[in-house]
Design brief:
mainly alpha, Serine Threonine Protein Phosphatase 5, Tetratricopeptide repeat, 17 helices
Length: about 325
């Protein structure tokens, strides 16, 4: 029975090769699906995964976007069915397929990416960092800075993230947002418990951004000093330092309403404080933090009042999941 099945697959493969040579892509696509079905039945996963990857790339290079994407989705389905866990091997390959699908096929491309990230997550929340890193670089090459930043947030490439942010700010941002771009990113990374990447991103950004004078820390921009001190407080786990920082830099923190939400979550993650709505009066730091959080809603003629304008950095949150 197995021999008969193998002969059947061989005949299909011969037809597949002939269809490809003749440029009959529709017929070739059907042959790929036929072989896929038979290989699945035989649990010949390694051969099948290689075949689907090569077929997807071949179709995409031949401008057969729909067929190429379909084989890419079949590949992810086989990765799931075979319980493949080698993200180091397959993340670059899935990224190549993603890149070749191209920007003219957003619906198909988004569907492929969603499935690729879901496979790479393997029980985690956001997908494998290596896949996000590859996808971020592709979006960056396409100058899609918002999506590139979103995927860098979920990678562990702080250096690449910082370099992207510098180009993003210089290309699309306002001059007064120099510190806002890095502050929001670092706070979001900390909310994702990614302290090491947050430190690497901040250091690379402040050392390489042409509009930040290389004299810090301390920096000329107060918000940069707050972020630097915050990273030190998290490293030392000193809740007193965190409380004083929030009080002393309240004017800088007011520049973006999102910062309070981020800091509340950071306080929970790194300092063991309760969520803001659950905090009770009293306690050694309760009143101070409560006062700080409540005081942020007061009006202020703080420096950089122009931040009341719609800022580029604030819009970045729309594509970043932090839960």
């Amino acid at each position: 029975m197995a021999t008969s099945s193998s002969r059947g697959v061989s005949r299909v493969l011969e037809k597949l090769d002939k269809s490809l040579k003749n440029g009959d892509y529709y017929e070739a696509h059907q042959m790929y699906r036929t072989v896929c079905f038979r290989y699945l039945g035989q649990e010949r996963y390694k051969e099948l995964k290689d075949m689907l990857y090569q077929g997807s790339v071949l179709f995409l290079d031949s401008d057969q976007k729909t067929s190429g994407t379909d084989l890419g989705l079949l590949l992810i389905d086989v990765l799931n069915k075979s319980k493949e866990q080698d993200c180091i091997l397959w993340s670059p390959k899935l990224s190549i397929i993603f890149s070749k699908i191209g920007t003219d096929n957003d619906t198909e491309r988004d569907a492929f990416l969603a499935q690729a990230v879901k496979w790479s997550a393997q029980g985690t929340s956001h997908g494998h960092p290596l896949l996000h890193q590859h996808i971020a670089k592709i979006y960056w090459d396409e100058q899609n800075y918002v999506q590139a930043r979103h995927h860098y947030i979920h990678s562990q490439d702080g250096k690449g993230c910082a370099e992207l942010l510098i180009e993003f700010h210089l290309t699309k941002g306002y001059k007064y947002e120099t510190d806002l771009f890095i502050a929001q990113t670092v706070l979001q990374l900390l909310c994702l418990r990614n302290r090491i990447t947050a430190n690497q991103t901040f250091t690379t950004y402040t050392e390489n951004h042409p509009r930040i004078k290389k004299t810090g820390p301390p920096f000329l921009l107060p918000l940069l000093n707050f972020i630097w001190f915050l990273l030190q407080a998290i490293e030392s786990k000193k809740i007193q330092t965190f409380a004083v920082l929030c009080e002393q830099y309240r004017n800088s923190i007011k520049r973006d309403p999102c910062y309070v939400k981020y800091l509340d979550k950071i306080a929970q993650i790194f300092f063991g404080l309760k969520p803001q709505e659950e905090k009770k009066p009293g306690g050694i730091f309760g009143n101070l933090i409560e006062s700080f959080l409540g005081g942020l809603e007061d009006d202020s003629d703080d420096e950089n009042s122009s931040a009341a304008q719609a800022s580029t950095s604030r819009k970045l949150i729309e594509n970043t999941e932090l839960d």
